[in-house]
Structure formats: structure tokens, C-alpha cells
């Protein structure tokens, strides 16, 4: 199987976004990630992603992001395909793309540029520049803003090497419109995790991204299995049981999104350190209590001795 082919075949599955582990001195500590990677692989997660937003991509320096993708590839050791996030300035994105190729990543996920003066045609140039150093790896576009318009989304999908779109905007109707306008080979992946996966599946997307896989990969797999079977009732019930977890992550303008994941890891004995500013840290007592209750309810945390 050629480099990148596993990514293309697995995009319909779960793309698990790994957290970034820090030690007490706020330095990368990849050893802390090993049990999380091992558990995700054991559960059958289809793709693991380095330098995604659950991995605090925008809180890392480019040098740290390069070290992280190399370390993640080493921990994964080919057991599942590795998708590497790249982005920020075009210089940073190109450097990180080259480093990801060297590390052995099997595909690139291109973060949508957050520049306040970004233009739709400028994004085409941006993706093309990354493609030129991608060594032929398939590229997934991370779309968080669909206001660039369907015609511009179609132009991006026409770029050679673009294999998929991670749709991370809560607008299934625009997703359906974009799917019709783009080449048939493009794989459309739900980019708003488990909660939005049923809505995206309903209009034809397949697979979804997940930060939950760091804490509870089997639940993500169960949801994926239900959706692939067209069993929306079971999928909704499984997702509904996660309401407390998702509520904590959605607070403070989503500023507790990664905080909730990393706190859950701490509570379950897989400490990966705190999040970095501007993410919120730590959780408030009320948030921590809600998360603790969620973990206990689902047997992810042993009950306290009386």
C-alpha cells in the first residue's frame, strides 16, 4: 500500500485528535502520550492526528509542532496512519509540512488560515504552496469558515492532492451544497466531533473527528459503528450520554474544550499536563465536579472510598 493510501481509505472512519503532553516545566513530554496512543490504537481508531486543535496547535511554536509530529510518529510506529496538521503563516506551514513528511506522516491536514485579511483566492495559493512541498501526500482541508462560499470551496477541492474536507462549521445545508459542487473523489468528514456527526451523516458525509478518543475511544468507536449501520437512534443515545462532558468543553466560549479533555486525563491517571493560555486552566470547581460525575457515571473513574 503506497504512502498516503491508508489515510485516503480511512478518512471515512474516526480521525482522533491527540492532545499535546507537557511536563511540569511546560515542555513537550511525549512519553506521557504513549498510553493514550496505545489505547486509541487498541480500540481501533482509524486515523490519529498530530497538531490538531485538541492538540493546542496555536499554542505551540513551530519548532514544538515539528518535534511533536516526529514524536507522535515514533509512538504510533505505523500501527495506524498519522495525519499531520500544518498551518499559521505560509512559511510556518511549509516548514511544518516538510517536517511532517520527514517524520513519516501519511497525510497533511491544512488548518484554515486565521489571518484577519485572508482572501478566498489567497487560500488557494496557500494550499498550493503547501502541496508543492507535500511529497505527494494527500491533503485534508480543515474548513472552519464556510462564508468563503461554495465556489471558492470548490476551487480549493480542485487543487491536485486535496483528498478530503474536514467540515467544521455547524451548517449541514451548506455542506450538502459544497458536496454537490466539488469533485466526486473528495471525502467529506464531520469536523465537529461526535455531537454533530449524525447531522453530517444525514447529508452524506462520513466519519468524524474526535477529541474524546483521548479519554474514551471505545465510545467514539461505538458511535461510528452505529452511524455506519444507519442506526441513528443508537448513535443519538450514545451521544446523549456524553452531554455533561460536552457541556463542560463548550463553556467559556469553547475555552474549556481542551481543558475538559486534559482534566479528564488527569482524573483517570493519564496526566498530560495543563493547557496553555489563552485556553482556560484549571476548570472551575463546578466544572470539575460535573466532569468527575460524568467519569464516575460511565465507569471511567473509580468511586471514592467512603
Describe the structure.
Helices cover 47% and strands 12% of the residues. With 306 residues, the chain is of the alpha/beta class. The relative contact order is 0.13. Helix 5 links the parallel strand 4 and strand 5. The mean pLDDT is 96. It has 2 domains: 5-230, TIM Barrel (Alpha-Beta Barrel); 242-300, no CATH class. Strands 7-6-5-4-3-2-1-8 form an 8-stranded parallel beta sheet. It has helices at residues 5-10, 34-43, 62-76, 90-103, 120-132, 150-157, 172-181, 193-202, 217-228, 232-240, 243-254, 257-267, 285-297, and strands at 14-17, 47-50, 82-86, 107-111, 139-143, 162-167, 187-190, 208-210.
Short structural description:
By secondary structure, this protein is of the alpha/beta class. 47% of the residues lie in helices and 12% in strands. The protein has helices spanning 5-10, 34-43, 62-76, 90-103, 120-132, 150-157, 172-181, 193-202, 217-228, 232-240, 243-254, 257-267, 285-297; strands at residues 14-17, 47-50, 82-86, 107-111, 139-143, 162-167, 187-190, 208-210.
List keywords for this structure.
306 residues; 8-stranded parallel β-sheet; alpha/beta; globular; 2 domains; TIM Barrel
E-strand count: 8
CATH architecture of the largest domain: Alpha-Beta Barrel
* Main pleated-sheet profile: 8 strands, parallel
Shape: globular
First-residue to last-residue Cα separation: 55 Å
Overall number of structural domains: 2
Q: For this structure, what is the CATH class of the largest domain?
A: Alpha Beta
How would you write the strand order of the largest sheet?
7-6-5-4-3-2-1-8
- Provide the helix percentage: 40-55%
- Beta content comes to 5-15%
Number of helices: 13
